[in-house]
Amino acid sequence: MRDNVVVNVGPEPLSFDDVIRVARDGAAVRLTDDAIAAISAARQRVDELAESPTPAYGVSTGFGALATRHIDPALRAQLQRSLVRSHAAGSGPEVETEVVRALMLLRLHTLATGHTGIRPTTAKTLAALLSSGITPVVHEYGSLGCSGDLAPLAHVALTLMGEGVVRDKSGNVIQAAEALKQAGIEPVELAAKEGLALINGTDGMLGMLILAIDDLTRLLKTADLSAAMSVEALLGTDRVFAPELQALRPHPGQALAAANMVRILTGSGVMASHRDPGNCTRVQDAYSLRCAPQVAGAARDTVTHAANVATWELASAVDNPAVLDDGRVESNGNFHGAPVAYALDFLAIVAADVASMSERRTDRFLDVARNHGLPAFLADDPGVDSGHMIAQYTQAAIVSEMKRLAAPASVDSIPSSAMQEDHVSMGWSAARKLRRAVDGLTRVLAIEILTAARALDLRAPLTPAPATGAVVTALREAVPGPGPDRFLAPEIESTVRLVADGALLAAAESITGPLS
């Protein structure tokens, strides 16, 4: 939990940084005065509808296929409790704390826009949960990505009622009632429309999209780093990354990736050793080396598109029915997760392809027919030692799974709610598989860097570029250099951590400055 950091939540859109601070850094939140005013105004209109004899969906009727029943005023508090309890039907593994905090924050933001009709006290209680570090236990399965992330959000709403189970600030699983009592938070007795307002949003899938964008922004720079290290250690050329060649195909991401690789390779003694045409008989490098900017660049442009989608969604108020500025309360379809689901699926595709190219470069290091003078499998004594043979197997297994994860979830739909909800986005499923894909890409890039660093050490006395040399030095603080076979799994995991936390990228940027 980051101390003394508070994110203000009002009607205006949140930033990506706001989401990351709350989700990953544990920042507290505060509803702004503008948010309280907007919430109060919308609530007044909902109260008027609740008192009217005319049925209003979500206020005085049932839900989904049961919307035709008008609910007696005496039963409406029970209606809201029943909605939350019945919809808190998640199953399977527990969802990560950072994901739950992201979806809580994003639901709070929608409440703060004043388009849901919730009461101020209920919104303040949700803010208090975030600030106190209480995280409802949410499960892997339950959302179809339409009518919002219903089950995941219902588990959050259940906590507001003082029911269900949560993780406290220390990460312990306890009953929600006890956690709220310890934090001095009063459970909420939900009023008309509040149950629906708490669960009808795309907040879970959007939260996971923003977290993935944060990860992939770092990992694609790391992919430029790993590719540059491989080009260098495999005696490839950097001439193909020249800006005048990239300008012939002006995709912005490609230009950034190529420029990064040029900066990383500047000053390389290994590269200088074979620049003389008399010392190099190869005409051009394999695609996995030569086309690295084209693939990583296209991945960047896809992330940019996904970031645009997330930005539009952060400016949205997703609820049904919605309270409009003129006081009307209207049904709508803004809860459909298709825009977010497509972006999530696109990112799983690019993560798989970047990982696939990384694995191909690693494989080249291990084959004496293609590694230009390095020992077989980079082994100390090939035959006695196996070197990185099985590290590449691990990469290949991860890439194979990532290719399966790249199959889009958003093209699937299983009708629900007695055919009232007859087309759904499966955006939550797209988000869950993207998280696995991001983890896979982290591991694949780590193994490439681990292998390329070993190869650069084996090129001695040739010296690497200052940037790649800094990466090798940073890696060697956790992982020894070449030698007889050792227990390899811990070395891979150490490298994965250094990639995940950005330490190796930071080592390169200590020389190059911030990469694009």
Automatic annotation (TrEMBL):
Q: Name one Pfam family in it.
A: Lyase_aromatic
Cellular compartments annotated? Cytoplasm
What reaction(s) does this enzyme catalyze? Answer: L-histidine = trans-urocanate + NH4(+)
Q: In which pathway does it act?
A: Amino-acid degradation; L-histidine degradation into L-glutamate; N-formimidoyl-L-glutamate from L-histidine: step 1/3
This protein's record includes keyword Nuclease = no
**Entry's EC annotation:** 4.3.1.3
The Gene Ontology terms for molecular function here are: histidine ammonia-lyase activity
Q: Which positions are tagged coiled coil? A: none
The broad enzyme category this protein falls into is: lyase
CDD domains per record: PAL-HAL (cd00332)
Q: What is its main location?
A: cytoplasm
Q: Which UniProt keywords apply?
A: Histidine metabolism, Lyase
Per the similarity annotation, which family is this? Belongs to the PAL/histidase family.
Q: Which PANTHER family match?
A: HISTIDINE AMMONIA-LYASE
What name has this protein been given in UniProt? Histidine ammonia-lyase
Give the originating organism: Nonomuraea typhae
